[in-house]
Amino acid sequence: MDAPPRWLNREEKAAWDSFIRMQETLIGRLSRRIQADSGMSASDYIVLVSLTERGGGRMRFLDLAKLVEWEKSRMSHQVTRMAKRGLVAREECPDDGRGAFIVATPAGYKAIEEAAPPHVEHVRRLFIDALTPNQLSTLGRLSKRVLDHMEKQPD
């Protein structure tokens, strides 16, 4: 027999509800600002930031999908849309005929370089400026703790 659900108590539910509302509101507002400021979708921005900041301008397709926590099909559709607009290109992997690299094009670099300054200003205005340095440090540690915990849990 399955164990009964471990329902959230009042404090747990309040914390969870506040976190979800904050996260969804923040992401929604930032997504709308990216679109308005640069014409890029939030998904375009995530892919380009991942490629240019973490990947040196190119990453294996599956590594990129894993980094942004997307299914392969979502990443494939996103890359196809971005390639049609000239922001990224697919390159075959010479070591593995099944693998591919996703590469930020010069237009992709230009787009992210133009979009990043207003985006970081919105992040600062909506998120960073709401917290003291100590609160920000605590939030960073708590977020890392939850991420580390999730790594140990089955998906």
From TrEMBL:
Superkingdom per UniProt: Bacteria
GO molecular function: DNA-binding transcription factor activity
Pfam family, one: MarR
SUPFAM superfamilies from the UniProt entry: Winged helix' DNA-binding domain
A single GO BP: response to stress
UniProt cross-references to PANTHER family, sorted A to Z: MARR FAMILY REGULATORY PROTEIN, TRANSCRIPTIONAL REGULATOR, MARR FAMILY
The name this protein goes by in its record: Uncharacterized protein
Organism: Streptomyces malaysiensis
Phylogenetic lineage: Bacteria, Bacillati, Actinomycetota, Actinomycetes, Kitasatosporales
